[in-house]
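To: structure subgroup
Subject: Chain for Friday's discussion

All,

I'm putting the inputs and outputs inline so they're searchable in the archive.
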Amino acid sequence: MDSAVPRLTLAAPLDGLVGLLSGLVDVAGWLLARRYALALLVAGCWCLAEWVVRRLARKASAERMALELVPTRHFDPGLEEIFRRGVQLARASTSMPWWAPRRTKAVQIRLRADGSSPLRYRLEGPAGGERLLSITPFGPAVTVKKGLPIADKPRKHVVRAEFILRGKPTAPLRDVPLDPDPLQPLVDAVCDLRAGLGDLAELRLDIQRAPKWTLRARRVQLMSDARRRERREAQRAARWLRQDAGGVEDSLGWQLQQLIGSKPAGAGGGRRLVMPPVPRRVEPAEALGKLADDDHLVRVQLLVTCASDTEGRAEARLAQLQAALDVFGSGSRWAMRGWHLGPWRLGADRWPSRRSFERRWELGHCQPPRPNWVRLEELTGLLKPPTRHCRLPLLAGDLPTFEFGNPELLLQGIHQGPDGRRRLVATYAQETLFEVGVGKAGGGKTERALAQAIGWAHAGGGLMFVDPHRDSWPRALPFLAHDTLADRIALIDLGAHGPAPQVSSWNPLDMRRGQVAHEVVEATTDAFASVLGWDDATAPRALTILTAALAALVAVNQAACQAGRPEDQTTLFHVRPLLTDPAFRTTALAGVEGRLDDETRAWWRTVFPTLPAEAFAVVLNPITRLAANPVTRAFLGQAAGVYNIRAAMDTKMIVWVCPGGNGPTDRLITALLARDLLRAVRSRRDAPEAKRVPFRVYFDELITLTGAAPETIASMFEDFRKYRVHVHGMTQLLARLPAPVRLSLVQNASTLASTAGSHSAIAPVTAEWGDEPGPDVVAALDRFDHYVSLTVRGRRVGPVKITGPHLDDVFAAYARPDNTATFERAARTTAGTAPLDQLVTHARGQLGRVNALLAQLAPTTTPDSQEKTYK
């Protein structure tokens, strides 16, 4: 009985195991007999698993982040920087919770063009990878900012495509160089996109680490295939070798050789032994290619969508993108998934692929139908934003289109897009602070400036156009001859043309409008000093004498205006009697005794009497030259002049100033006008910034103008922005401008333009652009073509090639040639012109009227006592 107990103990488990196996066999037999039930069970399990995975995937996809990468104009990364970025992307793709399905463990690169920019570069991926991806190896050359959600409006026509790798699976894509940018074909494919037609093109590249087990299985398959091919090749070679050997032995030549050949007796005559070739050893590196190593191997998915509101444009865009991706093809290439059956394409737009495509597109799931394994080195062109080697198109969003009559826009020229469309482009007026135009004579600088000025005038803006040669006035006149502008325009022409010339008038010392006395004195003195080359080292006495004389005359004019007699004010020509006529000097200084400061009065009493007569020559010489010229005598000799640039600014006047030439006298007039402009603009400090009316000043032939007032012109480019006055300058050569003017021009230019010219003349301009384009390219431009760098929304645009606007084409609808004579008369009337002879006669009699005023101001002062005081 004791010996039976162990046997029963062992028998029970064995019976249970046998029963279990028997049950399993019965179940297997039942399932085999009912295969449909097995299929339903498997399908049910698969559906349940897929449902769970999709729910988890949707939950994981809801926790994604987005980053926008904006490169600078000089972004130029190296291969190592791009490779490190690829490593970051691969690492960031795994920054998901442990429960997240593999399809969600990916980082997506979105290349998007919708009219807002040439090609937006955006990253989307796991929220856990945001910190890793926010710091790029590209450094400050790329700005990384958080990406906002993108909401696309529905388009009428949408096409979808999925690209897969075809060709030899172990072969790499083409090694595309970084110069030109590998993204250039994609940019060119979307360069003619038109946002107004609803055009949209977007490419999404998903990157995830390659699954290890799938990769190992693929390697085993590839090695087996390679060995199989080697065996087949060896067998084929052996078969051909035996055939060749048999053919040789059966040939007549070989048999004759055996008959006539000497052989030892008893030698055998059988067939030779043929050794079959041994299969070559398969090298893993050769058989596996880019799949040989796990390092930096990723799986990718490439999806593309194109849309438009116009039929046919989306399909054409997709074809362009397909051609752009062909650039990356080599042993392996990007090919569109699907088939073409006549006019139909069976792909991502058709059942059953469309639903899967849209799910992956919306949720960012990476589930390519083929492995699509690539190494990071193959994706070099797509792992970075566009670089400096990429030519970006100029879109309507980059540079606004000019609208006639819009005061917020300033005409710049005509731009021709990649699709051949031409449009008038503009910049925003409030951002266009200073402009510089360079180029040879006749290249179109003045024509472009005139078009801009005419457009600004018709939009209600005020301006001043200074042209020493006067050619701009008859050119612009037919396009300004509108009744709406008749009361806003004034022509200051010192050329005195025609048989009965008429001239306007201006008194730099006029005090009717409450100017600050010391500012008027300083502006006039500085004008003389800039033209004559005076400074504190070379001509201190001349500066002192002129300053004291002008201070006395300005004081007289203040007294005249206060007495209600502005027509009896002094002018520049009264400096001479003040210095050389003791009676006039004594009366004048006595009449303004209380209006001069103590230092000035002390100078006239103590220093002036000690000066020799020849000390006044340097001061009187330029004034004598002005008095000898009837035009300048008439223009500057009127007590109550009409010209008032401060009032013109505040009332949006259009003032055309033609100094008359570039001689010494003309340069002095130009210097006086420029210095008065600087004083008037600075006087705007008394008005709140919001009430300062925008005003534009155009200087044609800067070389001529700056020869008269270099420091004044330089100060304009430095100071006028604060007072909402903007300067546009044109010159043939930057190198001929004085250094202060040249430096201020280039430093503060919102717009820098150049037409054709010599290599040496263009080089300083292209150097400001980094020689892109170089001087050789700019020097070969056609007439009226420009390269221009512009400022739009706070950033630089260009240099871009534009065609200067021709007035006869752009403003043809504004031409009023029949109104030119009437309009010019109105412009002269507004400027207060009068016959030249009449003004000269009136200027010569002004001294008598001033003496009468002084006699009234100081009736009790005897000339003898006054002469002793100031002699």
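Points worth raising on Friday:
The first helix runs from residue 4 to 33.
Confidence is low (pLDDT under 50) at residues 1-8, 860-871.

D.
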